[in-house]
Design brief:
Largest sheet: none
Oligomer: single chain
Order of helices and strands: HHHHH
Number of strands: 0
Strand content: under 5%
Number of helices: 5
Helix content: 55-70%
Structural class: mainly alpha
Length: 234
């Protein structure tokens, strides 16, 4: 066996000396403390005679009243707020419905305006067609009036072209020759007219149906021929 080595024992610790008592420390005033405890002992009977319960109960009642009033007021406020919110929601719904109606009306109005515009185009085209038709009708009416006038004058002209030179001429209704007047009485008198006398006859027959004035500055023979053709004497 190996031998056990010797133990290293530490040296003993050195103890510090107790601290020195404090210097100049104020000692308690036991007399004042005794007086204070005596005053407290004298007041204790008065404190024992005070009943705090009524004050506590009154305070609790006040707190209960305040809580009740708060709850009532809070309920009323929330009720009013809820009613206001309901009114606002209803108003918003009405506004939305009105806006939808307005949009629908606007669409309907736009469609109606488009229809009216298309109708106006059709009306304008129809009016243009009617105007053109009226022009045609007026022209046809003028032609028809001329034909009717020619038919009215045809018996007079047939008579005048087939009668003898000494037979009296016929004139349109409302016109009749008189001795010494400007209108020639017989066919021979008509054939003997000159340019000046033909002008007098044309002036006397002014307003007769179908009688057109001769061309301006027409020579005398042309004016006489114009009158003869009107009366049917060639």
């Amino acid at each position: 066996m190996n031998p056990i080595p010797p133990l290293n024992v530490p040296a003993p610790l050195a103890l510090n000396a107790p601290p020195a008592p404090p210097v100049n420390v104020q000692q308690p005033n036991w007399g004042n403390m005794s007086n204070a405890f005596a005053t407290l002992a004298a007041e204790m009977p008065h404190v024992a005679n005070v009943n705090p319960m009524p004050l506590v109960q009154a305070t609790q009642n006040d707190i209960t009243t305040l809580v009740t009033n708060y709850n009532t007021t809070n309920t009323a406020i929330f009720g009013a707020l809820n009613a206001l919110i309901a009114t606002l929601n209803a108003t918003q719904a009405t506004v939305n419905a009105n806006q939808a109606g307005i949009l629908a009306n606007q669409a309907s109005i736009a469609a109606t305006q488009a229809t009216l515009a298309a109708t106006q185009v059709t009306v304008n085209a129809t009016q243009a067609t009617l105007a053109a038709t009226q022009v045609t009708v007026n022209a046809n009416q003028a032609v028809l009036n001329g034909v009717l006038i020619e038919l009215t004058l045809l018996p007079m002209r047939l008579y005048n072209i087939s009668t003898s030179d000494r037979a009296p001429l016929q004139y349109p209704a409302g016109f009749a020759p008189v001795p010494g007047g400007p209108l020639p009485i017989t066919r021979a008198d008509l054939m003997a007219l000159t340019g000046v006398s033909a002008d007098n006859v044309l002036n006397a027959l002014a307003g007769a149906p179908g009688l057109q004035p001769p061309p301006v500055n027409a020579p005398a023979l042309a004016r006489v021929t114009h009158l003869r053709l009107y009366l049917g004497v060639c």
